[in-house]
Amino acid sequence: MYNYTEFDKDFVRTRVEEFRAQTALRLSGVLTEDEYKPLRLQNGLYLQLHAYMLRIAIPYGTLSAHQMRGLADIAERFDKGYGHFTTRQNIQFNWIKLEEVADILAALADVDMHAIQTSGNCIRNVTADHFAGAAADEVADPRITAELVRQWSTGHPEFAFLPRKFKIAVSGSVADRAVIAFHDIGVQVVRNAAGELGYRILVGGGLGRTPLIASELRAFLPKSDLLAYLEAVLHVYNRLGRRDNKYKARIKILIQEYGLEKAKADIEAYFEEIRSDVPPPPADLMANITAGFLAPYDEAEAASDLSFERKLSPAFTSWLDTNTHPHRHDGHAIVSISLKAVGATPGDATAAQMRALADLAQAYGYDELRVSHEQNIILPHVPKRHLPKLYEALIKAGLATANIGLLSDIIACPGMDYCALATARSIPIAIDIATRFDALKQERDIGPLKIKISGCINACGHHHVGHIGILGLDRGGVENYQITLGGDGSEDAHIGTRTGPGFSAEALLPAIETILDVYLDGRFDSKERFIAFYRRVGMTPFRASLYPAKKNYRKKAVA
Amino acid sequence: MSKTLNASQNSQIITANAFLSGDVVYLGADESWVNAPQDALVLESEGVATSALDFANALPRYVVGAYLIPVGLDGSGRPLPLHLRERIRASGPTNYWLGKQTESGFHKIAGQDIAK
Questions:
Q1: Chain A residues within 8 A (CB-CB) of chain B?
Q2: Binary contact (B19, A98; C-beta < 8 A)
Q3: What would you measure as the largest C-alpha separation in chain B, in angstroms?
Q4: Contact A97 B20 (CB under 8 A)
Q5: CB-CB: which of A33, A417, A478 is closest to B93?
Q6: Which of A83, A147, A253, A268 gives the lowest tally of CB atoms within 10 Å of its CB?
Q7: Residue A381's closest CA among A65, A125, A92?
Q8: In chain A, which residues have their Cβ closer than 8 Å to the Cβ of B23?
Q9: What angle do CA A417, B110, A412 make, to 5 degrees?
C-alpha cells in the first residue's frame, strides 16, 4: 500500500497544528462559529445527536494492520471502545470531545492517517473497489489512480469551497464493486482497442433526495489526461453549481438542469485550454505510488481446492462459500470478514475486534486490510493453506459470521440513534431483520440479497441501490418505513422503485417476509436470485401481496 | 407520545451541545445549562423562545448548535421532549447502553417506548 513520503507526513502534521490553532482562535473569540464550522468540517468533525463525531479517512478503504491497531487505540483512548465503518470506506467515532480532537489527529498522524476532507464542501475520500489488486477480473489496480486523485484533491486550493460535497470512486474492472455509477465522478480503468490503459469517465451520479445514475462523459480518456480532465470537471462545477439551495447544489443537479451536452462542451473546452498546463505527475511521485501497489503476495503459494478440509467441516465449507472470493492468483483467496453478526449493529467493531483483525491480517494476510462500502472488512490476499487456521481464529474472535452477500449482510446508516439528520432509526430494523431470518434459517435458501437501510432521505445507507431498500421516515412523529425494490449499485445500475405506502416499525418485518415469500414461491429454482426474479416479474406481484385489495361492497351494490 | 402529557401547544425548551465536550445540554433557569430536559426552562411563547435562542447563540465559547424543541409537560409540570429523536438525544442510543441513560441521576423519559 501507499507509503507516506516525508512531504506527506509533514502535510498531515502541519494540518494537525493548523487545526489546533484554528480551535484556539475559535475559543478566544477571534473566529465565529460560522467561520470555524467549515474548517472543522474539513477536518472531519461533525456535531451530532449525542456528541461530536469524527470521520477518519481510510483512502480507498485500504489500511495496514498497524493502522488498524492505531484506530483501536483511538477507540479506547478517545471514544467508547468502538468505531463504525461507513458506506464510503471511512471509520466514524461517535463520542468525541472537541478538546481532544487535535490529540486524536496527532495520534492518527503517527500512523499516517488523517481526517482531512471527510466532510465539508470539498472533494471527499476517494473510494475504490475493495477487491483491488486481488480480483481476477481487474484490468488494473484502481488504487494507483485513486491515490493520484487523492493527492491531487487534498488541499486543492481552487476546490476548497465547492457548492457542495464531491465524491469520486474508482473501479478497475467492468464488474463495478465501487458503485461508480452513483458518484459525482466515477472513474473506470479500461483498455482501448490498442491495449492502452485509460479511463471511462462518468459524471453526475448520486443517491440522496434525488437519486440519479451517472452519465458517461468519456468512453476513453488517455491515462496522462486524467488530472487535467478532473480539473476541468471540477472547475465547471465550481463555477456553475448552485449555491442558493443546499438540496440542488450537487453536480448531478447541474447536469440535469444545465444539460449533459452543454456541460460536456464546457468541460471539454476548459480541458483543451488547460491540458498543456497541467503536467503529468512527476516520475518519482508516480514511481512511489506504483511501488505501493505491487502485488504483496507470494506467487509460490500452491493452489488448492481445499476439498479435504471441506469434507471435514460443513461450517467451514459454508463460510468458504459465502466469505471467500476467487483471487487472481490461484494459491490465494480474498476473504471477507462480516461485521454483521446476528444481533450486532452493522459495520461496528470494538477495539478488541479491530486488534483481532489486525493480528489476523498480520498472521495470514500480508498485513493488509480493506474496508468495503458494504461495511465489512476484507483480507484481500490470504494463502489458501491458511484458510482453515484463519477460520478457527475468526471463530475465536467472534468474527466468523458466514453471511457475506446474504440477507443478513445488511448495510445500515447509523440512523436516528446517532444522527441529528435522521427521521427514523435504522439499526434496530437491521437487527430485527437479521434476527428474524436467522431464526427462520432461510437465509441460505434465499441466496444473494442486498438489503440497505437509510434512516432518512439523505440515503447514507444507500437504500436506493438495495435489492430491497428501506427508507425510514417520520410520519406524524412516528417512525414509518418505505420499501423500494430492484435497486442495484453494480455495473447493472438501477434505482429502486417504491412499493407503495410505508409501514410502521411493527408492520415492516412482516412486509419483508411477504416480499421474500413472493420470491420463494415464484422463482424458477434456487438459482434464480432475488434481483433476477424481480427483473423478470416486476413490482406487480409484490404490490399485490403487500397491499391486498380491499373489497368495495358499496360499488358492488350500485352496479 | 403519552396522552397524559399536558401539551401546551407552544411549550418549547432549548437544547445545544457544550462547545468543548460536545455534551448535550439544555437551557435551564437563570441562564444556566442543565443535563436533562426535565430540568430545562419551559419557554411558553414564541417571543420568549426567540429571545432565549438568541441568548444561546451568543455564547459560542460555551454552547453550539442550539435549537428549540417542542415539549409536553408531565404531571409535575416538568418538560418532556415530544419527538423520539429528542428523547433519544436526552437518553442515548437504543442499540448500546451508552450516553446519558448510563449516568447516575438519569430519569427515564416518560412516554418513551423505544424498547423492542
A1: 26-27, 29, 32-33, 47, 49-52, 80, 95-99, 345, 416-418, 420, 422-423, 425, 427-428, 431-432, 477-479, 505
A2: yes
A3: 40
A4: yes
A5: A417
A6: A268
A7: A65
A8: 51
A9: 15
DSSP codes joined into one string, A169-233: EEESSSS-SS-GGGSSEEEEEEE-TT--EEEEEEE--B-TTS-B--EEEEEEEEGGGHHHHHHHH
Question: Is this structure's pTM higher than 0.90?
Answer: yes
Whether B24 sits inside 8 A of A97 (CB atoms) is no
Using a CB–CB cutoff of 8 Å, tell me whether B21 touches chain A: yes
Q: Taking CB atoms and an 8 Å cutoff, what residues of chain A touch B85?
A: 49, 416, 420, 422-423
ipTM greater than 0.90: yes
| Tens of each residue's pLDDT in chain A, 559 residues | 999 999 999 999 999 999 999 999 999 999 999 999 999 999 999 999 999 999 999 999 999 999 999 999 999 999 999 999 999 999 999 999 999 999 999 999 999 999 999 999 999 999 999 999 999 999 999 999 999 999 999 999 999 999 999 999 999 999 999 999 999 999 999 999 999 999 999 999 999 999 999 999 999 999 999 999 999 999 999 999 999 999 999 999 999 999 999 999 999 999 999 999 988 899 999 999 999 999 999 999 999 888 888 988 999 999 999 999 999 999 999 999 999 999 999 999 999 999 999 999 999 999 999 999 999 999 999 999 999 999 999 999 999 999 999 999 999 999 999 999 999 999 999 999 999 999 999 999 999 999 999 999 999 999 999 999 999 999 999 999 999 999 999 999 999 999 999 999 999 999 999 999 999 999 999 999 999 999 999 999 999 999 998 655 554 444 4
